[in-house]
Amino acid sequence: MSQRKIATVALVVADYDEAIAWYTQKLGFILFEDIDLGGGKRWVTVGPEIGGMRLLLAQASDEAQRGRIGDQTGGRVFLFLETDNFSRDHAAMLAAGVDFREPPRGEAYGTVAVFADLYGNLWDLIEPKR
Known about the structure:
This protein is α+β, with helices and mostly antiparallel strands. Helices cover 18% and strands 41% of the residues.
C-alpha cells in the first residue's frame, strides 16, 4: 500500500512578503521555501517547525482570486493549529498581536479558541484532549 498525506494547502494572499512576515512573526512559522518562478510568481511555503502540513502562500493574480482573500471557506474556520500547550501558545500569540475572536473554551475534544489571520481567515488554536 502506498503512503499518502496532505502535505501542502494553498492559501490565497494579497502579498507574498506581508504574508511571510505575518506567519513567521505572529505564529512563529518557519519559511521553508521562497522560490522565484518568474513573471511575479513565487513558490512560498511556511509552516510549524515540527511536523504537519505546509501552507503555500499563493498571491492572488486576478480579480476572482483577490475576491477570495480572507474568505476561502465562507466565514467558517479554515485551518486548525494544534498545540501541545494551549496556554503557552495563546499567550505568545496574544503578545504578538494575533486577533482572537473569542476567549479560550473547553470542548469535549480539547481547549480551543478562534483567531483570524492577517486577511481574516479563521483558524482554531487547539490543544486536543489526550
